[in-house]
Amino acid sequence: MEEARAAWDAWLLKNCFLRVNRDFYDVFELASSINSKSPLEAFQDSLRVRLCGPFEYLAAGQKVYSNKPLFLQGRFSLDPPEVSTVLADTGATNGAHYGLLRDAPDQHATYVVRSPDAAKGQFEFVGTNLFHALQHKVQSTSSLDDGDAKLSDVKDAITSYLEAYRIRMPTENAVKSKRDAETIAASLSCLGIVVPYDEKKVRGYRELPLVGQDLQDVITRASDGDKTAKKTINEMITRATIANDECDFGTSLLLGLDLFSAGAALRKEALKQLCVAYALLRRGNLYKIAHAHQAHSAAFHPAAPVSCISHHVTDDEPKCTEFVLPNPN
Asked: Which family does the similarity line name (predicted)?
């Protein structure tokens, strides 16, 4: 088992720019024990969630085919590059979903976050373990299906896991407080940014004149074609460029991510900021995600995860690349 997990660790890092923890595999193992034929659907009846994204490769067998980068699988239209979606809330009609958050592509996923509404592009912190996400769904589902046998069985399995590894279910405020202590600035996605910061030299990030709701208002107007608002955005971009020259790389990162969250209207400007910021911060693989996300934006649905893999190819499909998967066992 450990050899198989090590092989998957290497594969996911290479193809999805994602480092997962043991809870990722443990959730899939639990899902397989519940529904061996369709582990992705194991929590569908009880919790109304479906495993997606990187989980889909674990369930795929020996190989998959795709004409898009594999890291796009399961993403939603406003997911920032730092988030890798792993659970889709099938009980919601607005694209609610859970994802793993990391600030750098070579960093282990540190937080589990949830987007209550995919069209808004904002996230809340759920925990630091994928079983926290399942427990979160148990708590929100129990009031609707009290006494349901399948829900009770899943709840018992989750509780047993948390107790076996002495993992506590944290409060949302506790997780958010921990995250706030790490971030250098808040973002419109509510995830914040983490960059190296020298307090003595006051170097690494500087605040732009427009942030938060004020920036959101300008972004909204610019997205609607307001020329004055677009001019203001360009002024913010100029300031961020100057900040880069003076080693305040976090400024471009924050502005780029905030523009990215506006959707397609300002993606060109967002990508220019993110290209420079990720390069300077040595997070180049996150830019690859952002660039591919925009390049294949036509494949995204506002309230559903994108699908970019198939298990076989036909002559009428665009040319696909074959990807061999690690042995699941």
From this structure: Belongs to the HPF1 family.
Residues 99 and 112: beta-carbon distance below 8 Å:
yes
The tens digit of pLDDT for each residue in 52-82 reads: 999 999 999 899 999 999 999 999 999 999 9
Whether residue 93 contacts residue 303, with contact meaning beta carbons closer than 8 Å, is answered with: yes
Backbone angles phi, psi at 297, to 5 degrees: -60, -25
Put simply, whether the predicted model's pTM sits higher than 0.90 gets the answer yes
Strand partners, 111: 101
Give 174-227 pLDDT, tens digit per residue. Answer: 999 999 999 999 999 999 999 999 999 999 999 999 999 999 999 999 999 999
Task: For 161, list phi and psi in degrees, rounded to 5.
Answer: -65, -50
E strands within the chain? Answer: 49-51, 63-66, 83-89, 97-101, 111-115, 124-127, 321-324
DSSP 8-state symbol, 297: G
Work out the angle between the directed axes of helices 227-245 and 212-223 (0-180°, nearest 10). Answer: 130
Dist CA 54 CA 72 (whole Å): 9
- For the chain, the structural domain boundaries read 2-182+308-324
Find out whether 15 and 68 touch, Cβ atoms under 8 Å.
no
| Ranges 11-20, 55-64, 304-313: which has the least confidence | 304-313
**Residue 112 main-chain phi, psi, to 5 deg:** -105, 125
Query: Which two three-digit tokens encode residue 239?
Result: 């300031």
